[in-house]
Design a protein that fits this description.
The chain is α/β, with parallel strands linked by helices and 210 residues long. The protein has helices spanning 6-20, 39-52, 54-60, 65-82, 86-92, 95-112, 141-144, 149-164, 168-186, and strands at 26-32, 123-129, 134-139, 202-204. The radius of gyration is 23 Å and the shape is elongated.
């Protein structure tokens, strides 16, 4: 993932501020380089490959058991070394597992960023995990009662299409503006309404888990 420039940060932050000016809701935008390191899965796969080594060698060769055991160790060691390369780890990880980890990261960030504590329960998280090619909107219960899930699906589809075209900044700005329009319709700004959460883009550089 290419780092966001100062200009990109400023443009997205400005879009968030403009959107929130017309609503009592709060919008947080987070981009994660990856939601997990997938090291455990990669090592498990290397171990399974190593466990599969003896059977064909026993039936197809006359190798002594010591040589078969050595071949098994070599396969495991090679797999462990190769999977130190993160792009390979991510490529061999099943899509379902990557989506599950990315969704879990999104939920975790919804809580970490205190979106569940906003007055009126009107916090919205726009979350993108680059390595998993995953994007999701998580809205608090006050919003879910009034906004159809299809609304967020359309927003995500447009955002991912923009990112795919190489227009990530424009995509995030459009997503924030669309989110702001939805919130303004159902949750207009109230008297004494204050900005409860930061408006800047949050970038998570790497996963904490293995």
């Amino acid at each position: 993932m290419e780092p966001f420039s100062a200009e990109e940060h400023a443009a997205i932050s400005s879009a968030i501020a403009r959107a929130e000016a017309n609503t009592s809701g709060e919008i947080v935008v987070i981009v994660a380089r990856a939601s997990d390191g997938y090291r455990s899965f990669a090592l498990m796969l290397a171990a399974l490959l190593a466990l599969a080594v003896p059977l064909p060698l026993i039936y197809a060769t006359n190798w002594p058991i010591e040589h078969i055991y050595l071949a098994q160790l070599i396969v495991f060691a090679a797999g462990a070394v190769l999977t130190q390369w993160e792009p390979l780890r991510i490529a061999i990880t099943p899509t379902a597992l990557k989506r599950a980890r990315a969704h879990q990261k999104a939920v975790e960030q919804f809580i970490v960023q205190n979106l569940h504590t906003t007055e009126g329960r009107t916090g919205v998280l726009i979350f993108v995990s680059v390595a998993e090619r995953f994007a999701e909107v998580i809205a608090d219960e006050g919003i879910y009662r009034k906004v159809r899930p299809e609304t967020w699906e359309e927003l995500i589809n447009e955002l991912t299409a923009n990112i795919g075209r190489g227009s990530r900044t424009e995509g995030f700005i459009a997503a924030v503006e669309a989110c702001g329009e939805v919130l303004a319709e159902h949750f207009p700004p109230g008297r004494g309404d204050c900005n409860e959460l930061p408006n800047h883009l949050i970038v998570l550089d790497g996963p904490r888990r293995s």
